[in-house]
């Protein structure tokens, strides 16, 4: 069959080599990291001002917006 050309013998479903386990753990960590990034991006999109320090945008509210555009 096509699988006879592979260098390793056909592994059973319950047995994984050390390289296969390491690759599986690495891919699992990458998926967890990707999931955390997706959640973080959606939280920023839903409430962008929560992640920003309040000193950067509350100062604008104290001044007139027209005066702020001139300077």
UniProtKB/TrEMBL annotation:
It holds the Pfam family Cortexin. Keywords: Membrane, Transmembrane, Transmembrane helix. It is found in: Membrane. The keyword Membrane applies. InterPro entries: Cortexin. The keyword Membrane applies. The chain crosses the membrane at residues 22-42. GO terms for cellular component: membrane. It is a single-pass membrane protein. This is Cortexin 2. It comes from Seriola dumerili. The lineage of its organism: Eukaryota, Metazoa, Chordata, Craniata, Vertebrata.
């Amino acid at each position: 069959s096509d699988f006879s050309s592979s260098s390793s013998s056909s592994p059973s479903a319950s047995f994984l080599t050390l390289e296969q386990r390491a690759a599986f753990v690495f891919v699992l960590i990458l998926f967890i990291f990707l999931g955390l990034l997706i959640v973080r991006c959606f939280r920023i999109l839903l409430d962008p001002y929560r992640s920003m320090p309040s000193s950067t945008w509350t100062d604008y509210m104290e001044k007139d917006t027209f005066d702020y555009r001139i300077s």
